[in-house]
Design goal:
CATH architecture of the largest domain: Orthogonal Bundle
Structural class: mainly alpha
CATH topology of the largest domain: Cytochrome Bc1 Complex, Chain D, domain 2
Shape: elongated
CATH superfamily of the largest domain: Cytochrome c-like domain
Strand content: under 5%
Number of strands: 0
Oligomer: single chain
Number of domains: 2
Length: 402
């Protein structure tokens, strides 16, 4: 069947439109001069209509009808700030922001087209949060407390042991505890019971356990010590460089020994000496020490008063969000046209961007500094938080002369 005159006219119009948008196909991507990013704010209704026509043909396959994505990892762009969208499109075009699909899609698009597409998406109603009840955010300290319930039989409530031979864990640095637990899991530290117990604990919960114990208030052991504390004091002179004066370590990789169970300390020194614990430095130090000296040193450290670590619980999700809101607007509704809105954005996309900022795969000094201190729990919590905020459409007016 032959196409009608109307169909031919429609096809011709579409072809002309695409050619118009790609008129600068052979041109290099031009850098943005100060103020250029505000050009989409001056878009007229006809410009937005042109932007819609191009977006429907070139962008909707990934970003969804009306800029609301249904594809994992692809962001919603509806209602996003137009200058921000324009700047990001230019970054993809120049290669300063890397995504093979986007780099290819915008490579030969005219600057005028980028302005219109950004203005079109900004004119749309934004996506709304996913249906369902408000999310709950993981509290890593509470998660650690829950996981530690299985450890209390040996290590005591809150990590203060009442069982001779079992170490106190309260106020030991999280980094040291994590390394120690990983050592038991891998067999680097030989203890069949600990290897079995920790074998069922995932990496994330290892971190939660370490954080929980690091935050607990320590208490000096009440277990009797078989050695002579005064004799042990002289023997520990060579230990202070790592374990600190009076057994209070200042290094997160080295445990404090003050107030520790003496039977545990003796067993640990034996393990370093015979190689059951793999540590070349400790093995060399323990090799020349006899059993009586082990007991004296353990008695000295057991008699010292332990100290709590000078650390604070990590910020809650709401506290982290308050920091982010300073730039991205209250609950992620940016009031700066150059800064993206986060409200109702897809959670997995936000997570990916934070990780990219952390690794410098996506360049931003400010975001690298902000994201660099986040752990995986905090990244997931923040992304979930913003994905469930109500997004609000805004209207920006370009300053005169722009």
């Amino acid at each position: 069947m032959k196409p009608s005159a109307y169909t031919l006219a429609t096809l011709l119009l579409a072809t002309v439109t695409v050619l118009t948008f790609r008129a600068e196909a052979t041109a290099q991507s031009l850098p943005i001069s100060p103020g250029d990013e505000l050009r989409p704010l001056n878009a007229k209704p006809d410009d937005i209509a042109d932007g819609k026509q191009f977006a429907d043909s070139a962008c909707a396959g990934c970003h969804g009808t009306n800029g609301i994505s249904t594809t994992t990892g692809i962001p919603n762009v509806a209602g996003q700030r137009a200058p921000y969208l324009y700047v990001q499109l230019k970054a993809y075009q120049s290669g300063s922001r890397t995504n093979p699909a986007m780099n290819t899609s915008v490579r030969f698009i005219s600057d005028d087209a980028l302005v219109k597409v950004a203005a079109y998406y900004a004119s749309l109603d934004p996506a709304q949060p996913p249906p369902g009840s408000a999310p709950t955010y993981l509290d890593p300290v509470q998660a650690g407390r829950t996981a530690a319930a299985a450890c209390a039989g040996c290590h005591g409530e809150a990590g203060v042991s009442k069982t001779p031979g079992m170490p106190n864990l309260a106020a030991l640095a999280a980094q040291f505890l994590t390394t120690a637990m990983e050592g038991y899991r891998s067999g680097q530290r030989k203890n069949d019971m600990m290897k079995s117990v920790l074998g069922a604990v995932g990496d994330v919960d290892i971190g939660h356990l370490a954080l929980f114990y690091a935050l607990q208030k320590p208490s000096r052991t009440q277990a009797p010590a078989p050695g002579d504390p005064q004799a042990g004091k002289a023997g520990t002179a060579g230990c202070a460089g790592c374990h600190g004066d009076l057994g209070i370590s200042s290094a997160p990789t080295t445990p404090s020994l003050a107030g520790q169970d003496p039977q545990y300390l003796i067993a640990a020194l034996r393990a370093y000496k015979n190689g059951d614990r793999a540590d070349a430095t400790m093995k060399a130090l323990a090799a020349s020490i006899d059993e009586n000296a082990f007991k004296d040193m353990a008695a000295y450290y057991a008699a010292q008063e332990p100290q709590a670590l000078n650390i604070q619980p990590p910020p809650t999700t709401e506290e982290w969000a308050q920091k982010c809101d300073r730039c991205h607007g209250i609950k992620g509704n940016s009031t700066d046209a150059r800064i993206p809105a986060l409200a109702a954005q897809r959670s997995e996309y936000l997570q990916a961007q934070l990780r990219d900022f952390q690794t410098s795969r996506r360049a931003s000094h400010a975001m690298a500094a902000m994201s660099g201190v986040l752990n995986e729990d905090e990244i997931k919590n923040l992304a979930t938080y913003y994905s469930h905020q109500n997004a609000r459409a805004v209207v920006f007016i370009a300053p005169p002369g722009k």
